[in-house]
Amino acid sequence: MGNVIASAVVSLDGFVADTEDGVGPLFDWYGNGPVEIYGTDQGRPFHVSQASADYMKSTWPNIASCVIGRRLFDITNGWNGVPAVGDHVFVVTHEPPTDWPFPDAPFTFVNGIENAIAQAKEHAGDRDVSVTGGNLTGQAIAAGLVDEIAYSLVPVLFGTGRKFFGDYVGPQVMLDDPRVVQGDRVTHLHYRVSKG
Q1: What are phi and psi of 75, to 5 degrees?
Q2: pLDDT band, residue 173 (cuts 50/70/90)
Q3: How far apart are the first and last CA of the chain?
Q4: CA of residue 7 relative to chain centroid, distance
Q5: How many other C-beta atoms lie within 10 A of the C-beta of residue 119?
Q6: Strand ranges across the sheet with 128-132
Q7: Out of 53, 65, 143, 181, which could bridge 120 as a Cys pair, Cβ 3.0 to 4.6 Å?
Q8: Residue 20: half-sphere exposure toward Cβ, Cα within 13 Å
Q9: Measured between alpha carbons, how far is 162 from 168 in angstroms, rounded to an integer?
Q10: Beta-strand relationship, 128-132 and 63-69
Q11: What domains sit in the chain, N to C, each tagged with a CATH number?
């Protein structure tokens, strides 16, 4: 089996978006470098530093499934039916959309984080599952479902907004020392959750 990786781009004070769901300068590094790289959508190139490109190339191809919340799905319109990374998206929601214009897209609407991760892992097989930052990450960590944390840290303070770990309330979780990759206006910190 692959790993379940909680991942997001995060401000220094731990936010993945502001209170209006805007990302401000958090995504600037996706367009500030000379190296072109793609996720799943071949029509949406990123231009990043060589260090960020090398890091992305070492992680993104291993992701088969993504677990996201309904909020992110609505904000992005499910990326118009094309997963940002991986080949299938599991959306945690109590109310699947009834009028989404991409009914044949590789998106599955699931009730509950544990059920979503179980289905995502089954789909992924030996590859990895990505869980987006926010309340889902906090719920997945509290349930002991996360193996790694990929924290792309941007040098900005938001002061308030949507937290990477959501409203996490749970046991203390120890992490191994991170793999550190210094990009341009981003530092990629990749942690393994300590298992003992």
Answers
A1: -60, -40
A2: very high
A3: 19
A4: 4
A5: 17
A6: 107-110, 88-92, 63-69, 128-132, 4-11, 148-154, 187-192, 179-182
A7: 65
A8: 2
A9: 12
A10: parallel
A11: 4-192 (3.40.430.10)
Q: Which long-range contacts (CB under 8 A, 24 or more apart) does 76-85 make?
A: 78/102, 78/105, 78/107, 79/41, 81/105, 81/107, 82/40, 82/41, 83/39, 83/40, 83/41, 83/107, 84/39, 84/40, 84/41, 85/39, 85/40, 85/60, 85/130
What tokens does 37 get? 């790289």
Judged by DSSP in three states, 104 sits in coil
Question: What confidence tens digit (pLDDT) does each residue in 137-154 have?
Answer: 999 999 999 999 999 999
With tokens 């046991």, the residue in question is 171
Token couple for 82: 């094309």
Type of residue found at 184: D
> Tokens at residue 163, please?
């937290």
41 token code pair? 């959508």
Task: Enumerate the β-bridge partners of residue 107.
Answer: 89
